[in-house]
Amino acid sequence: MFAVYSTEEMSSEPTESQITVVIEGFFKTTVTWSLIRFLQYRKEVDDFTYSKRQEHRLYRSALKALSDDQAETSLLNFEPSSAITQPDAFVPLVVSLCPVLCNLYLDVALSLVDPIILDEKSSEAVKNFWLLIDKERSKHEIENIQLDYTKRVLNDTNNETHQIRTVATNNAIKTLKHALEGDESNREKKKKSVSRKERAHSPALNYSLVEPPMLVDRINNPFIEKDEVDDILVIDDVDDLYFMDGDPADDYKIEEINVSQLFRKYQNNSVNISKTEGLFVESNIHEILSLSSIFLLNPDSHSRKMIDIFGSPLLDKIHQRIIPTQQTALDAECEAKFRDAIKRVTKESFSHATDWLMAELSNNKHLKDNMGFIILDCLRTLPFTKIKNDPSEMTLVTNYLDRIMRGMLHDPNRHIIEWPNTGLDESKARKSGGRAKQPDFVVSVIHQLQICGVIFVGEVSPPSEKNNVYKNCKDLIRIGVFMKDCLDVGIEKGADLKVLGFQCVEYKMDFYVMDLIHGMYMMTHIGQVYIPSSIKEMNLFVNEVETLLKVREIFCKSFDTLYSKLCNPSPPSPKTIFKRNTLGTPKFNELVNKTRNCHRDCPMWYGRFDSKR
């Protein structure tokens, strides 16, 4: 069977500006060139055409425009010399004569001219890529049809008009859904069949009402809280979700083990669980995050499904390989002065201890750099013994948590601490409706007196929620998605950075760092700190200052990287081709089981132990 191409599609060639853009954005930033890598890069840019023929032509034209050895080799592999070296020159003539001759010419000519690229185009990776593109287009069309139906039906005053619109919309959606389910030949048959039914249809006879557009269930949806329209976790059509193998050269390996391949296997296993038994928020944090390509690594807190596929030794080895190496440590002299100041509170008075430490700080920059002002602020504001009443979330933030985060990260002219009450812009950019749930905490980068990016996010649960396993698991999932959104935006700005996040449950803080490694958003646990609630707990806090130094070190490197790109804009980072999608508005009944049970097995151990040591 010959494919039928339109005259416009066959004659259109990439413009010089299009070729220049892909040369700068892909060929000059990618070491190894291949069609599948090029397609993955193109899918992430704004001018992706969704046309297989046009994208392949753009790849070939860019190779022709380049003149180095690698380009010549790639072009030779892509378009080896043969009896017909310029097939496109004949296309307009053939098209004008006869469409059938056109198709015959193309099939014969292209088989002679491009034997190697046809082999590449017939590879499973390329086939699967275009199959997913077709599915995405169909899904977007369904969403647009449903949205258009919703808008128009509100204006229908005539019942017959409403019925006709309902039937037409229903048939259009069925056509697109059938196209998603079958192979190419079956799709064509189903489309023709539905088309005939549409032409023969009479609105007065035998019609079926269209299913209303899918809306979020405000009552039963566990991810929607009071007064909340849209949440971070969004899933759309789990049946079509599948994670395929790509170019092995793009995979992350440790020795002979292909970690990327194992992760894709784990992702598909998570999809299967969601279809058969459902994913529980309390028990399947790792699996839910994996569906957005987030690989959560927290030693001794791996899920059973992860261990079944990776094995705990390999998971620990991956964690050790990717966790950032700490360059700074708490100076022994500084540690001694901190403990001396705490002792002075006990033996003398608060005022004497704070005056002494303030004098030390004024003459010792090294003491300031080692969190000296945080220690001073704690001595000035904490009670000697912990207050028995549990603080609310706002009190926990203002009286205990804020002083730590502000002292560690706040710089009013470069990066500022915020406890926002608005949605995260990085998440709004991903959502079609422009709405997003806000995190409890962000660190925003300032450039030209404007907020230009977020590189640190956090969620807080007060003591009253420490045993709420469901909420705390859900918060960790939200943190992962927030971090991914921020990382994607930074990569688009050309910054090869890491994004940080924390979860505070009662007085315990867990810190995470995320990096994009070969298509996997590695969300790695880097340390735990207990926020002091009294002077008596200060000595324990001094033990953990080194963890805060590590967090600040990672933060400063990421800030410097992003800020330099804001000052000197550049093309997107080469990591752009490894970006992956975040799941969209949920069918939670298909993916996440909506029941809650604090006694379910939880790999993160929320609610199992008293959070204080």
Automatic annotation (TrEMBL):
Residues 180-200 are annotated as: Disordered. This is 1499_t:CDS:1.
